[in-house]
Specification:
single chain; 3 helices; about 0% strand; transmembrane; membrane; transmembrane helix
């Protein structure tokens, strides 16, 4: 398996692990009576599973994004400056314009 795929899978699993801990803390601390609601519901296990999966997808995506954005840059590669064409030697110059005065205005 390529290194990049392993890197992304590892960070996705870290995100899912954090999501399990987060949902566990939500249920254990009974935030907004969520733990009581899920505990007393006949479909509480399914609700907890759906909550873990949805929060897990969010945390895994965020963890993978952070991991990719925090990769070190290769300083030997040319920097991306927004284009591939070499800059030309001539810079833009302002052209003189004639300003109309009170006497020269067209009526």
């Amino acid at each position: 398996m390529p290194r990049l795929v392993r890197f992304l899978i590892r960070h996705a699993l870290i995100g899912f692990g954090l999501a399990v801990l987060f949902v566990g803390a939500l249920l254990l601390l009974d935030v907004a009576r969520l733990g009581t609601l899920i505990g007393q519901s006949p479909f509480g296990g399914l609700a907890a599973l759906v909550l873990v999966v949805c929060v897990g997808i969010t945390f895994a995506s965020a963890q993978m994004g952070f991991a990719v954005m925090l990769l070190p840059r290769d300083h030997d590669a040319p920097q991306d400056r927004g284009g591939t064409r070499a800059p030309s030697g001539s810079a833009l110059r302002l052209a003189p314009a004639r300003a109309a005065t009170g006497r020269n205005r067209a009526r």
